[in-house]
Design goal:
Elements lengths: L6 H15 L23 H15 L7 H4 L3 H10 L23 H4 L4 H11 L4 E7 L2 E6 H17 L7 E5 L4 H12 L3 E5 L8 H15 L3 E4 L4 H10 L5 E4 L20 E6 L9 E5 H15 L6 E4 L6 H14 L2 E4 L2 H6 L2 H9 L4 E4 L1 H10 L2 H4 L9 E4 L6 H10 L10 E3 L11 E2 L8 E5 H7 L12 E5 L3 E2 L4 E5 L12 E6 L11 H7 E2 L2 E11 L2 E7 L4 E3 L2 E3 L1 H9 L9 E7 L6 E8 L5 H19 L5 E5 L14 H9 L10 H11 L1 H38 L4 H18 L2 E5 L11 E4 L6 H8 L5 E5 L6 H9 L3 E3 L4 H16 L4 E4 L16 H9 L3 E7 L1 H4 L11 E6 L10 H19 L9 H8 L8
Parallel strand pairs: 1-10, 3-4, 3-5, 5-6, 9-10, 9-11, 11-12, 12-13, 26-27, 28-34, 29-32, 29-33, 30-31, 30-32
Antiparallel strand pairs: 1-2, 7-8, 14-17, 15-16, 18-19, 19-21, 20-21, 21-22, 23-24, 25-26, 33-34
Helix pairs in contact: 1-2, 6-7, 7-8, 9-10, 10-23, 11-12, 15-17, 24-25, 25-26, 29-31
């Protein structure tokens, strides 16, 4: 622990930095311990990084990366300095870590159809092998395949206890850390669909963060949100505004529940997760990605990149972004190679950590958007990179945003002294709608840059090689060829395919392609064009390789010419005094003339009028030189004004809206006022939610009132009625009356499959305590329910059930159980139709349990046909373990009669299998038999001698 430095020394360092950043205003600023770093001092993320570096150097401490986002005032910095440890040796100075060994692929993994099967294959083959190494500061936290599976199942148990249904969405708003990995697979094991979200970077961004995620949560229909305790206040506000959001869990809640005895195995076509697009061109859309989509993409990328278990992937990419989640983590998981992962903030605060990790762990694969490479070039000098060895880095992927040729050249030249080879630079292209990757260059080739004639390209869209490389040229970077099994074409506005070197809309197809956007049919229809998906990007193909030029929606048309925003943005960012990568170029329709204006929005720390006017003239000059025309307006705003996505892309549509509504440069609202405003806006959704809960409670009370009023009357009539037919008719009419009064609709399909005459056995799945009532309402002939003996403990209930012919079976007393079986057989001889709930019990979670053998042994003994009956919907009305009924409908499907094909034990096993298959066909729920070893044992075991 380092002693807290004197406040005056801290303020001196802050003042010196402010004098460098804002020389014209520093003398007028009253810098105190309570000055706001962003609002009062105008320090953005880059300036904060510089301040932290100076504080560490001045006080010989090592500040945690979270200070970059958490500290709001110099007083906060002072508190962190007092708690910070003394600076120690850097990672580069440490010895090489112990080899934690590649796991290696297995036949089970290669044959896997789902992500769950991939993890199960590795965990079964080598549970102790280390899959992840999570870096938190100076600490390393290894995670094995076995631990990942065990913790994921524990999370799944908690989610299942909260009544998570198969296909329900679960939002994960967690930073990079071990909990994220456990939660993602925990949701999959529970049968749910993960929805990755990013947590707020700092309190001052809370309002925009809430607005954005409110839309995502509402569209996803998320019932559960998992987040960190620090974000709970934000999450509660979200819950008040998203009616379907029922539960908020924090990482402290996750591992308190024992895992359940079963998992819900998903199908290959089931949704693996929803990837919400970055929103760089508008509102985010939920891309549906199935297990089959993801595994097809991972296998194709692995084939092109020759990924093996000996590779080491080093990543700082956020796990809520497809490049980090799929490309880095899930790809490493599938191929059995090691993944070293650090929080994105660790890289943003100290870019050298990325390169140090590649050196220390001998990383062979790593990826970053273009800004990541640019940040390394800008922030790292010879001192910080001394001793770093990057010779192991064989593939440096560059994607997720436009690849800038100047950045590639600069990075290759600057880090060649560290052993980085130009052949390692690998520009790639992908998008969420294609899972993540779509086009990759040949491995080990390096970047290929096409220099084309600017005037020809702007006039005709034809990419002609520039005759004079020093003249007016465009530079576009090759992203390689389509992945194996995938196709790319370039079409014009009419959908006709264009020849090579002609710019048009990029369309694609392949096994990685999404089936559409979640709960957004309009956008899904726009996405598909006769089997091809529209990427929304403009590109051309040359020599079979793809060259991206721009986004369709970003193109600005001025005087019949196309203006490419990213090129002008990069040029403006190079002006001294303009903040790097903080420029947005967009078109805005002039309401007076109806024409599109060219707007350049950029950021600068300078605030003096003369300096700003000089910058505007410089921006105008650069624009004229580049485009041959001046911009209609240049807006120079303070730091933090230009909106970006979580991955660093410029949100041009959002910036256009900000410009047109006069929001640029508007002073940020205080955090307390943001919370108050969001709280007030939450009142209406909260009232709606409360009213719904009241309505649900009133409905439940009405159901019990109806049952109490009608049940007593019908109980008396049933008990006093003679024979079996009359009590059954009374019970049927009573149940139908209760269903009518409570609004429960019961539908029947296949009732013609009931035998018109003769004895039969009915076998049914079991979802709820309502099942018996529903069956009573629809059965055309009386049946004897086979029920558990515990129901006999209630004398009144027992009396009514006995009048209806119910047979009670003691599940825990073998002798009495055998007596009950003999009674059922004897009743069947007399023409009674037994009805078995073949699972033997009910559970609150969806899925068909293994069937017990009693009904099927009886059927083969007496050669009786079995009528399969499937019930759906009753679990949603009244769930096991709950006495709170909800509105719903019950559906009953009567399957085709199944006849025994023999009279021995094997015939009973076969009969059970055929009946169970018929019920599963109509149930649309997971088959849980594979999770029970007892079922497999029953299949091969021989029955007792007296049963043969």
């Amino acid at each position: 622990m380092h002693p807290t430095p004197p406040p005056a020394e801290l303020l001196t360092i802050v003042s010196r930095l402010m004098a460098e950043l804002h020389p014209e205003a520093a003398s007028r600023l009253d810098i105190t311990l309570d000055s706001r770093l962003d609002r009062d001092l105008g320090l953005d993320s880059l300036a904060r990084m510089e301040l932290l570096a100076r504080l560490e150097q001045a006080f010989a401490v090592r500040l945690p990366e979270k200070v970059l986002a958490a500290a709001e005032t110099p007083r906060d910095l002072l508190r962190h300095l007092g708690a910070a440890p003394t600076a120690t040796a850097t990672v580069a100075a440490m010895g090489r870590p112990a080899d934690f060994g590649p796991a290696g692929p297995t036949a089970e993994v290669h044959a896997a159809e789902t992500l769950v099967e991939v993890l199960e294959g590795h965990a079964a083959a080598h549970p102790e092998a280390v899959h992840l190494l999570v870096l938190q500061g100076e600490e390393e936290r290894p995670v094995s395949y076995g631990e990942l599976r065990e913790k994921a199942r524990q999370v799944a148990g908690l989610l299942q206890s909260l009544a998570l249904e198969p296909g329900d969405t679960v939002a994960i708003m967690l930073p990079t850390g071990i909990d994220y990995f456990f939660c993602f697979f925990g949701v999959l094991y529970a049968g749910g669909v993960p929805v990755p979200l990013y947590p707020p970077a700092r309190p001052s961004q809370i309002e925009e963060h809430l607005r954005r995620h409110r839309k995502i949560l509402a569209n996803a229909g998320a019932r559960i949100l998992i987040t960190v305790p620090e974000v709970r206040t934000v999450a509660l506000l979200l819950q008040s505004q998203v009616p379907l959001l029922e539960q908020i869990l924090t990482t402290a809640d996750l591992y308190r529940h024992e895992r359940t005895s079963f998992a819900l195995p998903p199908a290959a076509t089931a949704t693996a997760f929803l990837q919400y697009t970055s929103g760089s061109t508008g509102d985010p859309k939920g891309v549906i990605l199935s297990h089959a989509n993801l595994l097809a993409n991972i296998r194709a990328m692995g084939q092109v990149c020759a990924v093996t278990a000996a590779d080491v992937f080093v990543s700082w990419l956020p796990l809520y972004h497809d490049m980090g989640l799929i490309g880095a983590w899930l790809g490493s998981l599938y191929h059995g190679c090691r993944l070293v992962v650090m929080p994105p903030l660790a890289f943003i605060a100290r870019p050298e950590r990325w390169l140090l990790a590649i050196d220390r762990y001998r990383g062979t694969l790593s990826a970053a958007p273009n800004f990541g490479y640019d940040l390394c070039c800008a922030r790292l000098d010879d001192t910080l990179t001394a001793g770093i060895d990057l010779s192991s880095w064989r593939l440096a992927f560059n994607g997720a945003e436009p690849v800038i040729p100047a950045t590639l050249r600069r990075f290759e030249q600057q880090f060649a002294r560290c052993g980085f080879t130009a052949t390692a630079m690998t520009p790639v292209y992908g998008l969420a709608e294609a899972s993540v990757g779509l086009a990759f260059p040949p491995r080990g080739r390096g970047a290929v840059i096409d220099r084309i004639d600017r005037d020809t390209f702007l006039a005709s869209g034809t990419a002609v090689t520039a005759p004079d490389p020093q003249g007016k040229v465009f530079e576009f970077v090759s992203c390689g060829r389509p992945l194996p099994g995938h196709q790319i074409r370039i079409v014009d506005d009419g959908g006709r395919e264009l020849p090579d070197r002609r710019e048009g809309r990029l369309q694609f197809k392949g096994p990685s392609a999404t089936s559409g956007y979640y709960r957004n049919p309009d956008k899904t229809r726009e996405l598909f064009h006769e089997g091809w998906l529209d990427s929304g990007d403009l590109a051309y193909i040359a020599g079979g390789e793809v060259y991206l030029t721009s986004r369709v929606k970003d193109i600005i048309i001025r005087g019949g010419r196309n203006v490419y925003p990213h090129e002008l943005e990069d040029a403006v960012s190079g002006i001294a005094g303009i903040r790097r990568a903080c420029t947005a170029v967009f078109g805005s329709k002039d309401p007076k003339t109806g024409t599109e204006k060219l707007i350049v929005l950029t950021e600068s720390r300078k605030r003096h009028v003369d300096e700003l006017e000089k910058l505007r003239r410089h921006v105008n000059a650069v624009t004229v030189d580049l485009l041959g025309m001046a911009p209609d307006e240049v807006v120079i705003a303070p730091p933090g004004s230009v909106l970006k996505t979580s991955s660093g892309k410029i949100r041009r549509a959002a910036n256009r809206h900000l410009y047109e509504t006069g929001g640029i440069g508007r002073r940020k609202t205080a955090v307390w006022l943001q919370l108050l405003r969001m709280g007030i806006s939450s009142l209406r959704p909260l009232a709606v939610r409360t009213w719904r809960r009241i309505g649900a409670s009133l409905y439940a009370g009405w159901c019990w009132l109806v049952l109490a009023l009608t049940g007593g009357l019908w109980w008396g009539l049933i008990v006093c009625s003679p024979g079996l037919e009359t009590p059954w008719r009374l019970a049927r009419s009573g149940v139908r009356l209760v269903a009518m009064l409570t609004g429960i609709r019961i539908t029947v399909a296949g009732s013609e499959n009931f035998p018109a005459a003769g004895t039969f056995i009915a076998a049914c799945n079991h979802m709820s305590y309502l099942d018996s009532l529903v069956l009573t309402a629809i059965l055309p002939r009386p049946c004897s329910f086979v029920a558990k003996a515990e129901l006999k403990r209630n004398p009144a209930l027992r009396l009514a059930l006995e009048r209806l012919g119910t047979i009670f079976v003691d599940r825990f007393d073998v002798e009495r159980g055998l007596e009950a079986v003999e009674q059922i057989a004897a009743d069947a001889e007399r023409g009674t139709n037994p009805l078995f709930f073949a699972e033997g019990t009910l559970q609150r979670m969806p899925g068909l349990l293994p069937f017990q053998m009693g009904a099927f042994v009886l059927a083969v003994r007496r050669q009786l046909p079995v009528v399969p009956i499937t019930i759906r919907g009753t679990r949603n009305i009244l769930r096991g373990g709950s006495w709170f009924p909800r509105r719903g409908r019950a559906e009953v499907t009567v399957g085709a009669v199944v006849h025994p094909a023999g009279d021995d034990w094997q015939a009973a096993v076969d009969l059970r299998g055929r009946v169970r298959t018929e019920i599963l066909r109509h149930l649309a729920e997971p088959d849980l038999a594979g999770e029970y070893t007892s079922l497999r044992q029953m299949d091969i075991a021989q029955p007792p001698a007296e049963d043969r």
